[in-house]
Amino acid sequence: MSWYQTEPVVSLELVDLLGVSAEAGVIDVGGGASVLVDALLHRGFAHLTVLDISEAALQASRERVGADAPVEWIAHDLLTWEPTRRYHLWHDRAVFHFLSGDEVGVYRDLLHRAVAPRGYVVMATFAPDGPEWCSGLPVTRYGADQLIEALGAEFMLVDQRREVHTTPSGATQPFTWIAARRVGN
Ligand SMILES: C[S@@+](CC[C@H](N)C(=O)[O-])C[C@H]1O[C@@H](n2cnc3c(N)ncnc32)[C@H](O)[C@@H]1O
């Protein structure tokens, strides 16, 4: 859980910068036990989805925010998931960087099916000088230019951030953040 953050500061900063409305459909992929869903509920967001491969992580979040919260919880591997609707905002912190080879193309195709026209993506991966491993798995590190290129030509960079996250043990993890807008259909 080295990646765990108590306040989703940059996520909320970029949601504000993009002007995403509380009425918008928002999905946090690989949301796990992240408190982003709590913060968005607090701001009145009412159409939230959290997807994660780990049922246990989703259960922890579900128990934290309460069973009545307006959140759809999806326990699924995102690489084999078939979305049944489109989202105005796709949020991914520290999931895309686990993918390699063909998986990157699978993710890109999924993005194109799941993000609404003129919708947004907020994404964070480890930065080029960040750790090479996360949760014991190798990661691909990205700068903002590489990350936006990986999403494909339908996405235009709106803004970027560098964040140095301090882990619970006091180590540092530099992250690259991008906010992107879908320009094609
Ligand atoms: C490093 S954690 C980040 C969690 C959260 N986004 C955050 O910022 O705290 C990665 C999360 O992605 C989930 N995950 C990894 N591979 C996945 C996949 N293929 N499909 C769905 N979730 C996945 C893990 O279960 C874990 O909750």
User: Which structural category do the helix and sheet elements fall into?
Assistant: alpha/beta
Helix content: 25-40%
The low-pLDDT segments are none
What is the arithmetic mean of pLDDT?
96
Number of individual domains? 1
Main sheet?
7 strands, mixed
Classified by CATH, the class is: Alpha Beta
Beta-strand percent range: 25-35%
Kindly report the CATH topology.
Answer: Rossmann fold
Total DSSP helices: 5
What order do the helices and strands follow? HEHEHEEHEEEHEE
Q: Name the hetero compounds present.
A: S-adenosylmethionine
What sort of overall outline do the alpha carbons produce when their principal axes are compared? globular
The appropriate CATH architecture is 3-Layer(aba) Sandwich
Report how far the terminal alpha carbons are from each other. Answer: 37 Å
Using only C-alpha atoms, the radius of gyration works out to 15 Å
Strand arrangement, major sheet: 3-2-1-4-5-9-8
Annotation, overall tally of beta strands: 9
CATH superfamily placement:
Vaccinia Virus protein VP39
Describe this structure in words.
With 185 residues, the protein is an alpha/beta fold. The protein has a single domain (9-182), classed as Vaccinia Virus protein VP39 (Rossmann fold), CATH 3.40.50.150. It is built from five helices and nine strands. It has a seven-stranded mixed sheet, sandwiched between helices. Helix 4 (102-114) links the parallel strand 4 (87-93) and strand 5 (115-126). It is globular. Bound molecules: S-adenosylmethionine (SAM). The site of S-adenosylmethionine has 19 residues, from loops.
